[in-house]
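Shipment paperwork, digital attachment
Item: protein structure file
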Amino acid sequence: MAQRRAKRPDAVARIVEDWARERPGLDTSPLEVLARLHRAYLQYQSRLTAQIEKHGLSVAGFDVLTALRRAGAPYRLTAGQLAASGLISSAGVTLRLDRLENDGLLVRERDAVDRRVVYSRLTDAGLKKVDEVFTEHLENERRMLSGLTLTERRQLARLLSGLELSIVESDTAGEVAAGEGTAG
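Attachment content:
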């Protein structure tokens, strides 16, 4: 069961109060969501990084291992597939693969039919490592969410999904608004 804490003004509430005093007509309501989201992310990221690094992995390397693990047996993907998995940028894939290969957590294999295609595959040690670290990762995340009830977690997950969509769609909305009034 989630622990309930007494509500007290957080840093963002104080920032909003400061702006209300300094510029009373300014709508600072976006800060109440996005500044809190950013602050929560920074707290999450520091705890995530500490938990992953104690296993001798970087967060980026962990992302590669989890992508390979999620692919299912034989736990292999091309560099392009890893980059397309959503959590890994294409810029650093090769560097990450080199380090994980040097650590014995994956091997690179050429495709039997098309020798131009190279797969990265989890080794037995890599499979064991990712399963161990991911189990701890989920427990770490459960601890971080322990202040919320299950209903609150579900509600927050739904709201954050909507927020992500809103942010992505804001790019398109901005492009449409910028294009209005121009001669075509």
